[in-house]
Structures are given as structure tokens and as C-alpha cells.
Amino acid sequence: MPADTPGIHHVTAIASDPGRNHAFYTETLGLRLVKKSVNQDDVSVYHLFYADYEGSPGTSMTFFPYTDARAGQVGSGQASTVSFLVPEGSIDYWRSRLEDAGADPDEPRDRFGDTVLPFTDPNGLPLELVARTDAPAGNLPESPVPHAHAIRGFFGVTLSLTSADPTGDLLKAMGYRQTDREGTRKRYEADGDLGYVVDVLEDPQAPQGIPGAGTVHHVAFQVTEDEQEAWRQFLMDRGLRPTEIIDRKWFKSVYAREYGGVLFEFATKSPGYTVDEDLESLGERLVLPEWLEDRREEIEAGLPDLSP
Fold this sequence. Notes:
35% strand, alpha+beta, 2,3-Dihydroxybiphenyl 1,2-Dioxygenase, domain 1, Glyas_Fos-R_dOase_dom, 5 helices, dioxygenase activity, Ring-cleaving dioxygenase
């Protein structure tokens, strides 16, 4: 049995216009572009990684921006909302900032004693800011957002499911514990400092989610490389069908769809984003894994400009 996961490693979603995506996550949300690469399964598409200064696990929101992507439908069988952690007292600042950016923030609301500000990104992806006193100081990038209010990383994700119990049991086996319940929402928490919350929202009548721009592709959890094969066995023992271990250059990954249809990834914390770039220059150039380097000229010619 592998050691418990401390929480989320990264979340990957689908977008359309890469320039607009880049501008929103760096200029509006104040994250750092720590890796500019390509989707290793479709090299005509960027893979953009936004995070804290060094791309720490628990801070990395990544995107596949397909320029011709159709809008998806957020629904059952998906991670339906991504939540970021900000310091207590930051919600008024963010509400004003998001209104100015056209990000359509809702009224702040209380959930399990926390102040939550829902909004959407340019493709309609549901996002939230959760303000808490225990938000860590973080290794923050220089950005238009003052450090006092800056996003620290993930708070967690919400999974929308027609039946919650099988996924809840899986989360418990992964090291999460159920800590609260509010109507049809159950909260599970791990023991990490970032990305330690998974809310499971059960609605048997919810429409099925449809992949596309504005939807989450997968949620990745932190594991260690020496236990990754044990995690793969863990998934098989629970009747799931994990992939082989896949080398993604910056981490190694195992993927499996959990019982409700959400794609889970189990990603290693090392070697990290500085394995092929200096810390100070992360994200400044197109980086390719060595097995794609001989196709660089072709790949670069097929990618759009990142200007909004």
C-alpha cells in the first residue's frame, strides 16, 4: 500500500485561444508561465503551465489551448470547479479585479466557514477563490497582483458525480478523510498544505459533462517516484484500469478514470520544471522533451502566437 497522497499536483483543462488564456492566467490571476511546451499526444497544440515562481506541486494549472476548440459542457463525470487559495481579507480586492477583467464574479458566499468567490475564465471554466487564514506565504512570482492578495496555489477541486460513494471510498483509500457535509456536497481533505481539498457533489440528475473548451481534462495527485508502481497496483486492486507509467519529462504519470468517470492522474513530484530550464528563465522559450527535439522546426511552425 503506497503512502497517502498529500493532495493535488496539478490540474489540466481545455481552452481555445492560447493568447487570451495566457493573458488571463498571467496578467489577471498573476500566475507565472513556468513551462511552454506542447501536448505530447498532439504536438500542434500548446501545453501551457501556470504556477508559483518555481512550479511547485500544488500550484500548477495547465492548459491544452486548441484554437478551434468547441465549448464544452460542465457536468457529471468531471472536475466541475477548480478552487485557488488566497489569504483572508483578499476577496474584495479580487472581486474588483475580476470585474474589471470581465471574469463575471458572483457574489461571495460562505462554504464550510470559508469565504468563496466564484468566477469564470475566458472560456467559461468555473473557478473559485477561497480565502483562509492558513494560506501559506508561498514562493510568489512578480506579477500585477500584490503579494498580500496573490494566489498561493490550489485549495482544491469539486467533482460532479451521479453517485458519490464509490469515489468517496477511493479518496479515503488515497489518504483523504471526510471532514464535512453540506446538502449533497461532501468534503474530503488530505494532509498537505496546498490542493488538499476535494469536494464531491452528488446529483443523479445532472447532465453528463461534455469535453471541450472551458472544462477540466484531468486532476493529478502528488505521488513519489519510488511508490508509483504501488499506486498503479492500488488502482488495479480497486478494479480500475490504469495506464502504464508514462514519462512526461517533468514528472512521471499514471492515469485512470475513477468510478464516476473523472480522469485522475498520479504524478511524481520530481524531477520538476527546472530539469530542462533555469529557474529564472522558466517559460520563456518553447521546451520540448528530447524525443520531440528533432521535430522542433516543424512543431514551432505549426503553433500560433501567444499574443492575445
